[in-house]
Amino acid sequence: MKVKMNVNGRDYELLVEPNWSLLDVLRDKLRLTGTKKGCEEGECGACTVIVDGKAVNSCLVLAVEADGKKIFTIEGLAGNGELHPLQRAFVEHHAFQCGFCTPGMIMSALALLNEKPNPTEEDVKKAIAGNLCRCADYTNIIKAILEASKDVRHIIRSQS
Amino acid sequence: MYVGRDTPRIDAIDKVTGRAVYLDDITFPDLLYAKILRSPHPHAYILKIDTSEAERLPGVKAILTFKDVPRIPFNTSYRGPFHSYYPFDEYILEDKVRFIGDKVAAVAAEDPLIAEEALKLIKVEYQPLPAVFDPEEAIKDGAPQIHPEVSSRNVISEWVIGWGDVTQGFRDADYMFEGEYKTHRQAHCAIETHGSVAKYDANAGELTVWSTTQVPFNVRRVLSIALNMPVAKIRVIKTCVGGGFGGKDEVFDEPIVAMLSKKAGGRPVKICYSREEEFTATRVRHPAIYQLKSGVKKDGTITSLYVKVLLDGGAYATASPQLLRVNSTYFMNLYRYLNFRFEGLVVYTNQVPSGAMRGYGAPQAHFALETHMNEIAGELGFDPIEFRLKNIRRSGDEVPIFGEIVGCRLEDCIKIGAEKFEWYKLRREKEKDIGIGVALHSHVTSPPPRIIPDQSTATVCVTEDGGVTLISPIAEIGSGSTTAIVKIVADELGVPFERVKLVEADTSSELFDYGTFADRANFMGCNAARLAAKEAKQLILQKAAEMLDSRLEDLETANGRIYVKHSPERSVSLEEVAKAIYFKTGRPVIGVGCFKPEVNPMAWGATFVKLKVDRHTGKVNILKIVSVHDLGKAISPEEVKGQIRGAVAWGVGFSLREEVITRDGRIMNPTLRDYKLCRSLDVPEIEPVIVEADVERPELFVKGVGQNGLIAIAPAVAAAIFDAVGIRIRETPLSPEKVWRALKEKGVTEEE
Question: Are B132 and B154 in contact (CB under 8 A)?
């Protein structure tokens, strides 16, 4: 089946099988391997991407469902060697260890900040409740997201 | 100085941009995908196996059964000759299966779906055998024998150690205490599942393996045994590891993908486990049954402690024999007893194999020991803290296996923690259904050298332009060890942190190392790198002394320059010295560091828990945890706190909710939906507290901290539950059901 999707600002026309997930298309066809595969059952959140402004588990979205959608992955964040404020905050606050959940975590945080630029700590906890971090230091992740939320200007840029 | 100061991690940019390369991100144009057929039986012979139909499926490129692999036994955790007590009980594939999920056959195909399809076409005729799932049943007469060729009575290993005469110790006591304590199976659940890629070059007879492993050199060693290949012909490259926690501490399917690649004409073959395989076919934490018996005098002196433990090793030995030995150290290192005896057995059952897991047997041992200590203190009317201050070990004590205890700040950990937690205030102002509990821990930093020798290597090269290349074999698995090692080298050479480029060595570097486990990465890695940097620095200083017309002892390094002490106007840059060496002597500036410790620094600490019990549901709500650690020196304080908080969250999971449930050997909850990890909303308030040591021997500064935060959580939670509602639970997890049943049994009602 033929699908059209815009990924990180670039238009793609792809031939996909009906049983392919968006995750497989991103990773295997577009080689955007920053989006991770952790469970393929929507429980770990490592595959979180933004589809039309909403954070979704890309393992639970069929590629055909993404037809005509705007998709945003971790690769779309840093431009010209400059980190996005969320990425910078994750670096500064030591908000990762093994790093495997990090791309998904950042995408969930980005979706939150796009919707709610001034979140409370509780908002942040809820926004990343679907993202498992087995290294399990959620404290620094929450701190990083709250810190990044102070940089509103960049959040708006990332939306465009 | 960079040691003790937070800097961004050297892997930060790759990890926050999604550019870090994990195993599944590796690809080749001609890559094949492997899948493994797994046993539906807990114990069976394979009578017939027919792969003809699967072979005919288009896209299938290679199939392996036990008929296609060398019949060479190995142990997936084998680290060298000193592991002579490790049973070699595994083959790449065999005509016998020993747990549900054991490997039966493997397929490599053009596409993972084709490989999956092919598995369904393999016809296997099994002869089911009687199975045993309970370690106590496994050692009884007449129990099914799981590995009769390497064990009798299903015993993997036995370990007895002690001193004095425990029986006499009991006679000398005023009071006797006895208790049975049980702990459960826990799963690692790294978010990145296991996997590897192999590429066999038939012309050269060489094998390259990429693996998400904690132990690249061990993978190479075991591959060399299993495939009967020379070590030098095998290259193992560790990819970025998406969580290890002990679960990637041994060989998994590297031999299988290697053989598949060989059979498929040298095409690279990749395997990535599904989440279900991660639960059913990797490793779990050893379930344990402890019997403790102690004698105590009226004044609280412990005259005698007897410990008997039975560990469930599951279907293969893996690291069980070593884990059992280390288990005894947890009982010996924390308290002083005049008489002590530890008798341990680890046995085979037809369950998923148990292996190394964050804590390495310590959470089980400490649940038993520390619950027991809390019971004694409670019965005798001591404050649990005062009781411990009376009995804990201190620097200068001699213990078996480790020798003299050096630089122990356990007492300070207890006192500082009690103050931060407001222990005495909370004891005085008891609130309804709210309880507090304390437990201590001791843990190894790298395996105890007297039973398991350790060593590591590194090279430090000052480049021709005065930069630094550090080649370290330490396997970064997420804890930030490589950043710590870079700091050590920057400090030693007096160069900016950014000037040190770390190269993570694969096995072809031949910088021998055992891998990342037992909190050894910082201790071994930093010390080896420091010795390498010292040697490189010596070469630089010799030349600089010549150039500055100074004595070598009068030189010092800072900011990339070499100065004459007290006359800072006389200086030369590292670059100038390096150039002089490279282009005039024809030699590179390379220092090699080899570190082989005689003793290792034990880590100590105390955990304080405050919680509330819901009498209606039995649910335990943890309100606060203070986790105090004597860790030597915090090289990267923020990373250290992250390790502590992460480990504490593991401890919370282990204590309250994470349980692999098995029925007749089948795992009933092999999904992240049914096996509950801590999420952002589940982690309580955690206060990590760092207590640094003040000792003379600098190599002892770097103690482990990756595992320790989790060790004492369960006993502290159990103690706090008792404090809150007066029930003692001696079996983990301390689930709502268990708490609720215990409350019912005790007749505690909601109204009370």
Answer: yes
Same domain, residue pair A40 and A66: yes
- Pairwise CB contact (< 8 Å): B191 & A44: yes
Whether A12 and A56 map to the same domain: the answer is yes
Q: What is the pTM of this model?
A: 0.97
Q: Which of B178, B152, B173, B235 is nearest to B201 (CA)?
A: B235
What are the strands, taking DSSP E only, across B671-716? Answer: 685-692
- Give the structural domain span for A72: 2-76
Measure B573 CA to nearest chain A CA, in Å: 31
Q: Are residues A68 and A107 in the same domain?
A: no
CA distance B601 to B283: 28
Task: Please give the radius of gyration of chain B, using alpha carbons only, rounded to the nearest integer.
Answer: 27
b/e for B395-404, b at 16 or more Cβ within 10 A?
A: eebebbbbee
Contact status, residue B721 vs residue B734, Cβ threshold 8 Å: yes
Domain boundary among A34, A56, A76: A76
Q: Note which residues in 263-302 of chain B have CB less than 8 A from chain A.
A: 272, 274-275
The number of beta carbons lying within 10 Å of the beta carbon of residue B206 is 15
Element (H, E) at B199: strand B195-201
pLDDT given for residue B7 in this prediction: 96
Distance CA B489, CA A34 (A): 31
Closest residue, chain A, to B479 (C-alpha): A97
Partner-chain contact A129 B6, CB within 8 Å:
no
- Asked if residue A98 and residue A58 are part of one domain, the reply reads no
Do both A14 and A32 map to the same domain? yes
Which tens digits make up the pLDDT trace of B603-650? Answer: 999 999 999 999 999 999 999 999 999 998 899 999 999 999 999 999
Residue at a domain's end among A58, A76, A94: A76
Contact call for residues A35 and A27 (beta carbons, < 8 A): yes
- Name which of B15, B643, B669, B671 to mutate to probe chain A: the one with the most chain A Cβ atoms within 10 A of its Cβ: B15
% of residues, chain B, pLDDT over 70:
99
pLDDT, tens digit, 9 for 90 and up, residues B299-337: 999 999 999 999 999 999 999 999 999 999 999 999 999
pLDDT at A160 over 60: no
Task: Inspect the interface and report whether the beta carbons of A36 and B191 lie closer than 8 Å.
Answer: yes
Residues A61 and A92 in one domain: no
The secondary structure of B360-414 as a DSSP string is TTHHHHHHHHHHHHHHHHHHHT--HHHHHHHHB--TT-EETTTEE--S--HHHHH
CB distance from B18 to chain A under 8 Å? yes
- The enclosing H or E element of B418 equals helix B410-421
Determine the 3-state secondary structure of B341 from DSSP. strand
Taking alpha carbons only, the member of A84, A32, A37 closest to residue A59 is A37
In terms of Cα–Cα distance, which of B178, B392, B359 is closest to B286?
Answer: B359
Average pLDDT, chain B: 96
Evaluate whether A68 touches A95 at the Cβ level (below 8 Å): no
Whether B8 and chain A come into contact, CB under 8 Å, resolves to yes
Q: Where does A16-101 have alpha helices with state H? A: 22-24, 85-92
Q: Does B650 touch chain A (CB under 8 A)?
A: yes
Distance CA B73, CA B226 (A): 7
ipTM above 0.85, yes or no: yes
Minimum Cα–Cα distance from A129: chain B residue: B680
Beta strands B468-472; B500-504: pairing state: parallel
Nearest-by-Cβ selection for A129 from B190, B477, B680: B680
Q: Would you say B468 and B657 are in contact if contact means Cβ atoms under 8 Å apart?
A: no
- Tell me the torsion sign for CA atoms B641, B645, B650, B654: positive
Question: In terms of domains, do A60 and A94 share one?
Answer: no
Question: How many domains does one find in chain A?
Answer: 2
DSSP string across B520-585: HHHHHHHHHHHHHHHHHHHHHHHHHHHHHT--GGGEEEETTEEEETTEEEEEEEHHHHHHHIIIII
Q: Which residues of A touch B646 (CB under 8 A)?
A: 97, 135-137
